Amino acid sequence: MPTPVMESxxxxxxxxxxxxxxxxxxxxxxxxxxTAPTVSETLHRMVEHGYIAIGAQKVILLTPEGRSLAExxxxxxxxxxRFLAETLGxxxxxxxxxxxxxxxxxxxxxxERMRRLLGDPETCPHGNPIPAPGxxxxxxxxxxxxxxxxxxxxxTTVRVLSISEIVEDESALLRLLSEHHIMxxxxxxxxxxxxxxxVRFSLEGETVHLSRQVADxxxxxxxxxxxxx
Length: 229
Description:
The protein is an alpha+beta fold. It has three domains: 4-66, Orthogonal Bundle (Arc Repressor Mutant, subunit A), CATH 1.10.10; 70-136, Iron dependent repressor, metal binding and dimerisation domain (Diphtheria Toxin Repressor, domain 2), CATH 1.10.60.10; 147-222, SH3 type barrels (Roll).
């Protein structure tokens, strides 16, 4: 079984792949704020366990076993987030933090019961896909033609799809977005680039300013004129 550190690596590699990013050791070192030798040592052990493979140009790839383990961890976490938010009424920041504490103690039987109780949800409260048989979460963004908010064309109307989990402090990001009521399903209008590394847009009549780094973490879909979804 992978260690908790390995599980974090597997889930991060999985999420980076879903977001279309090239996964290399330096990217993981930056994300986890670790030295290159520390990351290399962990990756070496993960190769030995058969969880990852190193491809051309040192790109890190999940093996079938590594992908399965990553999906198991993400499924537990995202189901817990949905349960804590919908059944217990916790906000999406608290549900995220509590899910981290509980996910390693969730038995398969309780996980299955939770999935049925929730009606087999497709996403967590932050809009990210919940792995399940017959679904390919790595194609989630691509199939929906999603793009980062920072890359949307000026003057377009977009709908928030999901919030990236590849962030240094996810709780801080979720708190910031909650303050502006930026959540999956929300509609953002009149997107306008402003200063370098900053964007300005209108949300329900309110003008909101976000750094480009934050806007990079918000995945959206362009609205089709005349349609609400």
